[in-house]
Design brief:
The protein has 236 residues and is α+β, with helices and mostly antiparallel strands. The protein folds into 2 domains: 76 residues; 144 residues, 2-Layer Sandwich (TATA-Binding Protein), CATH 3.30.310.80. The chain is built from 7 helices and 6 strands. Strands 1, 2, 3, 4, 5 and 6 form a 6-stranded antiparallel β-sheet that branches. The chain is elongated, with a radius of gyration of 24 Å.
Length: 236
């Protein structure tokens, strides 16, 4: 059931929420299987059937490891807030332009909810914009290359405006999350990069959007620092 739920979503047989529901039921089934394996072990011990004991012990271990793995994942993220729209700029978040036309009517609205701003600040304080002294054009090229390296599906590019829209997918189920990156010239010699990531379905995102932004911004900082370093050969 776990394989069918994940593979089915990946190939487009059914929606991600349906696959997630199937996975949740597979965990329940695994717990029931663990209980049946315990009962069977006790019965085999009374009959002194060594071969069956080994078989049901193996079933017990596999089912427990599987269920505990997913339960641990859920408990680890259960205290995260039920929000699905994260932005480095919560006062004037980057606006989606083309993503509006590819989302279906039953998916989440793209209008930013200002009530989520203090919640984001509390739980995801590391979601911050990037400031650099590189030119806006250079920053745009670095951002575009990084988006391509991440394997995100580019929805639209506006080099003059410094805006890129793309769609990312979560690793396991392939949930689609939409991303918009905005590059602004703040003043003489300073450029600000903001990023917004929001889920198409589900109220909560288990921290995926925040992790995506933090990881992208960290990589962007690293690449901008490298591009700002002088070329030793040219100096010589």
């Amino acid at each position: 059931m776990a394989f069918v739920s994940i593979a089915g979503v990946r190939v487009g047989i059914f929606e991600p929420l349906t696959g997630f529901s199937m996975l949740r039921k597979s965990v329940y089934a695994s717990l029931v299987l663990s209980l049946l394996a315990i009962v069977s072990l006790n019965a085999c011990r009374k009959e002194k059937n060594i071969g069956s004991q080994r078989f049901f012990f193996l079933v017990l271990i596999v089912s427990l490891v599987y269920s505990c793995m997913w339960i641990g994942f859920y408990l680890h993220r259960s205290d995260l807030p039920s929000i699905n729209d994260i932005s480095t700029d919560t006062e004037m978040p980057p606006t989606f332009l083309n993503v509006n036309f590819i989302r279906s009517f039953n998916e989440n609205d793209l209008a930013y909810n200002p009530d989520w701003a203090p919640i984001q600040k509390k739980y995801y304080p590391n979601v911050q914009p990037v400031f650099t002294e590189e030119s806006k054009q250079q920053v745009y090229y670095v951002v575009a290359d990084l988006v391509q390296d991440r394997g995100w599906e580019v929805v639209a590019k506006y080099p003059a405006a410094g805006v890129i829209e793309a769609t990312a997918r979560t690793p396991i189920f392939g949930f689609r999350d939409d991303v918009v990156i905005r590059i602004l010239q703040m003043g003489e010699g300073e450029v600000r990069v903001d990023m917004r990531s929001c889920s198409r379905v589900g109220r909560g995102d288990y921290g995926v959007n925040a992790q995506r932004i933090e990881s992208f911004m960290a990589d962007l900082n690293t690449r901008l620092e490298r591009s700002a370093m002088p070329n030793v050969n040219s100096v010589r």
